[in-house]
């Protein structure tokens, strides 16, 4: 979260893509762990940790990866609905 606080989510996504798929020539499988979201956004996560990503930041990550044209698969993890 330090990098998100320091640079903003857009820059962090840009840096991550530069690191793993510089020329955007390889397919991307995005595995999105809901535990990364703040519990105010995802209260039924398995491991709630305050200070996580906002809804908009999580949504932005998915949008930005999709817009590369390289996204071939997306998985989402960890929802533990409360009774």
TrEMBL record:
Protein family according to the UniProt entry: Belongs to the arginase family.
Family annotation (InterPro entries): Ureohydrolase, Ureohydrolase_dom_sf, Ureohydrolase_Mn_BS
Record key words, sorted: Hydrolase, Manganese, Metal-binding
Keyword Metal-binding belongs to the record: yes
Regions annotated as coiled coil: none
Molecular function (Gene Ontology), one example: manganese ion binding
SUPFAM superfamilies xrefs: Arginase/deacetylase
Gene Ontology cellular-component terms listed: cytosol; nucleus
Protein name listed in UniProt: Arginase
Keyword Metal-binding included in the entry's annotation: yes
Species assigned in the record: Puccinia coronata f. sp. avenae
């Amino acid at each position: 979260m330090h990098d998100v606080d320091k640079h903003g989510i857009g820059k962090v996504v840009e840096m991550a893509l530069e690191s793993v798929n510089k020329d955007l020539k390889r397919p991307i499988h995005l595995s999105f762990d809901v535990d990364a979201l703040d519990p105010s956004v995802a209260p039924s996560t398995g491991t709630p940790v305050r200070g996580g990503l906002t809804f908009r930041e999580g949504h932005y990550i998915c949008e930005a990866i999709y817009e590369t044209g390289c996204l071939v698969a997306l998985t989402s993890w960890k929802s533990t609905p409360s009774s």
